[in-house]
Specification:
By secondary structure, this protein is an alpha/beta fold. 47% of the residues lie in helices and 17% in strands. It has one domain: Rossmann fold, CATH 3.40.50.720.
Length: 271
Amino acid sequence: MPKTVLITGTSSGIGKLAAMYFAQQGWNVAATMRNPSKDKDLCNISNLKLYSLDVTDSNSIQTAIASAIQDFGQIDVLVNNAGFGVDGVFEAMTDDIIEQQFNTNVFGLMRVTRAIIPQMRKQGGGTIIQIASMGGRITFPLYSIYHSSKWAVEGFSESLHYELAPFNIKIKIIEPGAIKTEFYGSSRRFIMSDNLPMYKSLVDTVESISQEAGRNGESPEVVAKVIFQAASDRSSKLRYAVGKPAPLLLVLRKLLPDSWYFSLIKRGYKI
């Protein structure tokens, strides 16, 4: 009997490619997004069903999970992919934008995770895959709010894996590097203020290099394949770094003293 995966944030990028890849491998796919009516690609895949799910709305989460279980019997794997990126000058950020970042990237992920646990516990196990970032363990300039959200995901997930292990529920954390998605485009929220000209030189330099990294990033398909690997392996491996420069930078961060590592990042950003 085919296994079933539920994936959040499948309207584009990593989520969309992951939904396609799981379907190609013969899995049943519950692909969720806020507005399924806008989809033009996933709806044509036979072993995939679309569901409306907004991670900031607990009722929509419960409804989507219940509908997917009714259609497919059970959910073997959850992929918490929904999220977006805020970058820019912290001094210019309002409470509202900070709350939006955390409500989606952290609290939304927590809501979906909490909603799926009872189902997986009753069925004797499952796997919860959190899409974090290399930015969940390292940092770059002007991403303070985004980094803080992904560091929260890492800490939450690492602690939770102890809690769920007795129920045969595995936690996996995916840490993508620079991936060519709308993270650098339409889903990006860049924050700057004309009243803070003292940051302009830093912003111009860092933004140019960050956007170049996005243009030269790897395809989201490489992440989709690693998500599938994490869903399929039976190991207790917790973290999966994927996409340049994530594997290298995460190793360097672990090995180098702070001052050496910070100098490396500053040189890379020419600051």
